[in-house]
């Protein structure tokens, strides 16, 4: 009868906003030039020849686990952490003579763009920015116009969180993951040893939601069964 507005935020307390900044290469720049400049940055962890995680460095101004604002009332927190506990602030990927920075908030996108612009100098041009709110993401899935500020009942809160997680995991299936040997889940699932690692990874995801105290929490009700099917390891699920 009295639904509350759902807030989805990242670990820094920023409103969740999917941001992509695409930096076109300068005419004379090469992949090796970009790769060399990126590998000099202590904030970046290279996972493959074309992919880096941008992580928080433990200092008062780094934006690590203690960054940002306090958790809002009636909010869900969206966090990405590496195996060593490092907080992931964004991802950087080389794609067809461009460098793409992906973050989950406007503030992180601005910080990341400033970091790359300073580090890459004349190797890249002014970036093209694309931003999408959770509401816009949900609207794009069901073709209904988005409502940027509404009070949502529990069922719609759950739909938004689940849509956000769908987007996250669809992207993650093709990204290198350290626990899988720095290969993507799809790649790992092609070998016997890799499938064993994929199964352990999926069980970790399931156990994480199972430990949530509130079984009605949208995070707790998210079903990862489709991931097992997508990766072709459903027969190994016990």
Give a written overview of the molecule.
The protein is 34% helix and 19% strand. It is α+β, with helices and mostly antiparallel strands. A 6-stranded antiparallel beta sheet has the order 3-4-6-7-2-8. The protein has a two-stranded parallel ribbon with strand order 1-5. A hairpin with a 3-residue loop joins β6 and β7. α3 crosses α4. It is globular and about 50 Å long. The N terminus is likely disordered.
Annotate the secondary structure layout:
Layout: E1 7-10, E2 17-24, H1 31-38, E3 44-48, E4 51-55, E5 75-78, E6 88-94, E7 98-103, H2 106-120, E8 128-133, H3 134-142, H4 154-172, H5 185-188, H6 192-210, H7 225-230
Parallel strand pairs: 1-5
Antiparallel strand pairs: 2-7, 2-8, 3-4, 4-6, 6-7
Helix pairs in contact: 3-4
Q: Encode the helix/strand succession as letters.
A: EEHEEEEEHEHHHHH
Percent range for β-strand residues: 15-25%
Ends: how far apart? 40 Å
Number of E-state strands = 8
**Range of helix content:** 25-40%
Structural class: alpha+beta
Helix segment tally: 7
The profile of the biggest β sheet is: 6 strands, antiparallel
What is the count of distinct domains? 2
Quaternary state reads single chain
Question: Taking all residues together, what is the mean pLDDT?
Answer: 77
Report the C-alpha radius of gyration, rounded: 19 Å
Give the strand line-up of the largest sheet: 3-4-6-7-2-8
Please outline what is shown here:
This protein has a six-stranded antiparallel sheet. Strands 1-5 form a two-stranded parallel ribbon.
Give me some keywords for this one.
alpha+beta; six-stranded antiparallel beta sheet; 19% strand; 7 helices
